[in-house]
Structure formats: structure tokens, C-alpha cells
Amino acid sequence: MMISQRHKDELNRAIAEYLSAHNYRQTFETFLKETDISADEFSQQSDKRNSGVLEKKWTTVVRLQKKIAELEQTVKKRDEELESVRQGGGLGGRSMALGEKRSPTEWIPRPPEKFTLTGHRSTVTRCVFHPIYSVLASCSEDATIKIWDYESGNFERTLKGHTDVVQDIAFDPSGKLLCSCSADMSLRLWDFNETYACIKTLQGHDHNVSSVCFTPSGDHVVSASRDRTIRIWETSTGYCVRTLNGHRDWVRQVRVYHDGTYMASCSNDQSVFVWQISTPMLSANSNLECKHFELRAHEHVVECVSWAPEASAAAVQEGAGLVDKKRNAGPFLCSGSRDKTIKIWDVSTLQCLMSLVGHHNWVRACVFHPGGRYLLSVSDDKTLRVWDLRTKRNHKTLEAHTHFVTSVDMHKLGPFVCTASVDQSIKLWECR
Length: 432
What we know:
Blueprint: H1 5-21, H2 25-34, H3 44-49, H4 53-89, E1 115-118, E2 124-129, E3 135-140, E4 144-149, E5 154-160, E6 166-171, E7 177-182, E8 186-191, E9 198-203, E10 209-214, E11 220-225, E12 229-234, E13 240-245, E14 251-256, E15 262-267, E16 272-276, E17 292-295, E18 302-307, H5 313-320, E19 332-337, E20 341-346, E21 351-357, E22 363-368, E23 374-379, E24 383-388, E25 393-399, E26 405-410, E27 416-421, E28 425-430
Antiparallel strand pairs: 1-28, 2-3, 3-4, 4-5, 6-7, 7-8, 8-9, 10-11, 11-12, 12-13, 14-15, 15-16, 16-17, 18-19, 19-20, 20-21, 22-23, 23-24, 24-25, 26-27, 27-28
């Protein structure tokens, strides 16, 4: 490769400066003779101008080589995606024309991750998006909760108060309160509007509190525990207004349906319970019975449950082969288990509509895509998987973390997905 005489002179001076700076005297003197650079010409002024140039150029080349390798990998993945689309992986199972854009309701997470957030000193047990602000919260076995700005990838603050593993966290619908639960047998309510202080500590469970969520009104918090109970708490007073019994072992997770009429829980007893709840039932002096129905099809501990949005109804019915789509089906619920499967249930008939098989280890968390067509799940097989509910197939697999993946959440409004892992990190993925 030919270079100009000026660049050649600059390179020679930079090499000479490097040899001089590192005290390679004999090589330096020989180099000066062979390049016709006199010792006088190699002045102090010249030395300053060329100081460190060779090292800077070298590190720049290495950095650029790394960036080129990353871009080549990204281009390769894009080519694979494009080829998949051309062969019929486009919208609705049809072939997508070149240049045709997906609707935002069809966007799914794509590698590589936008940010990797590190700071926890132990397993990250849950990560959730704030409903309004551009932040996400994570909790960990290190007994802390951390807040991150997901647009910049910056750490914002740490919330301390629990004395043992923080198992789960949830925002109320307004985003003004954060609730956490812990192996220290307590729940804590945090002011997320101004002070970020713990404003209430809720105690009553007799064992590890494994899950927490708000009711749609935000007036109540629901918790599940290893003591086999589910408790409903009033957020304004911190009082426990109901204790629900039924599960025969550790209750792993509890989630309330978006209209507040149902609640789903899952347990080590390999069952999923659907509870019928109402506003009168949640009053402190109510004697109304909370009826529940048992869903049983899993062959191991059921780790997680998630309610389908109304937008998922058409995709679930198509995948389940329900011909009469006019009938009043749903609501729909999914459950993930240590038997490595995900099951979709029709709560109106208490039937299991489909099983999604593909994970190679325990399914730890799942969430429906707001657009309705997809379901996202994470597992101890270290992957994040996207399932097409219409075809019941694994639409995309991302090698998400270097260890078990414990949590997944998808933003209801923005094109973002977050995952958490035993590798002590949270990853943010952009959807497109």
C-alpha cells in the first residue's frame, strides 16, 4: 500500500518517538540513520508533537476492528432475518415484500441488546418498566432495589430497606408507588413520586413473600408467599383485609386481571388457581367468599402466570383452532413451569388450549406482547423466546444471558423489552 511522503515522514517520526520513549536506544539510533532523520532534527518540539501517536493509532485500530466485527455480525443477523421474511416469515405467515415495514404491533426484540445494566451484587430476581417515566426497576438477592434510566442506560438510585432477598416488585397504575416483597417476610411501599422513601412496611406473612402486584385501581396490593397463602392489603392503611387459602404448597406468583375481576396464582403444588374477586369482597369487614377454580396440566412446579391482553384473543383463538370466534371466549391466561412448557388457558371454560414446547430448562417468566400476536418467555436455558400464538411456534430465540434468565417485561407503550438474570445483569432490548 502506497502512502504519501508527508504521511511517511509522520509515521517515521512517530516510530522514532515510540523507540525513544521506551528507551530502545540502539534501535532508535539505527532507525534514525536508516530514515535519514538527524538527531538535531528530532527536536524536543517534534518529540512533543508526536508523543504517544503510535499508541493512540494502535488502540484506535483495535477499537475499529472490534466495531467492524460487531457490525458484520449485525449485518449477518439482518440478512438471516430478511431471508426468513422472504421465505414466508412475514406478517400473518405470508411472504413480506422487500422494503415492506412491520407494524409496531408486530415488533419483537432483536439482538444485540441496547444496554447491559450492571451493579447488583447477586442474582437479579425481577425487572419491571415504570408505566410513565423512562425508567425501569430491578430487585435482587443482594436485598436492594435499583432504578435505571433505560433511554441512556444510566443507573439512578438504590432503594434499601429489606434485610433479605427481594423477590418481586410492582408499580401501581399511576406510577406513584412501588411495592416490593422479600424473603424477610415483609412487603414495603415506596414513594416513587418525590422522596423514594419507604412509607409503609406490611407484615403478616409467616414465610418468604415471593410475589406482589397491584389491583387495577391501585387501592390494594396482592401478595403470595411460601406460607401457602395469598394476602390482600389496603395501600392507604397497610392493613391486610383478606387472607386466601387453597394452595397446598409455596405460592410462587400472583397476578390480577386488567379489569380486576379475576386473579391468578401458581404454586409448587403444580396447579394454577383462578380467583373471582370483586370490590365489595375487598372491604376490610366483608364476609363474601372468594371462589377459586383449579387448573391442572403441568407436571412440575408452576413458576409464573400472565394474563393475556384483549388484543391477544384473535391470535389465541386461531392458534387453538376455535372455529366459532363469535362465542364469548376468554379471558386467557398463560402459565410457565419447571416442566419446560408454557400453557395457554381459557378461563371461561377452564380448558388448556395449547402447550408451547421449546425451552430446554425451567420456564421462569412470561409476558404477552401488547400487540396481541406474540408471547415472550425466559428460561433457565439462558434464552429469551418469542412465540407466535397463531402458529404455536417458537418465532425467534435470543441467547439473552450467560446464566439462568429470571425475569422478562415488555413496555406497554414503547418498543422495549428488559430481561434479568442470575448473571447479575439486566439487559434492555429494542423491538423492531
